[in-house]
Design brief:
By secondary structure, the chain is mostly helical. 59% of the residues lie in helices and 0% in strands.
Amino acid sequence: MFRFTKAALNIAAQGARRVTVRHGSQSAAPNFHEKYGNILMVSGAGFCVAVWSYVFTQTGITWNLSPVGKVTPRPWRGVGGQEEEEE
């Protein structure tokens, strides 16, 4: 049991050393987000604006944003669902 524990700790220590060496060498170079993050955000926003501008102006979709003047009420019916007759 002692040998197993010693071997396990040795493997864990070697892994920790590898991780330390690996992370230490990358600190000088900027990562992807630092290098391209703002460019990607601006280009994505521009693409979104371009697509929605095309959709709003060129596709011919009737959007019907306001129901004012477009909704007409049905004729009134008397109580019980029958129209009242005038005499």
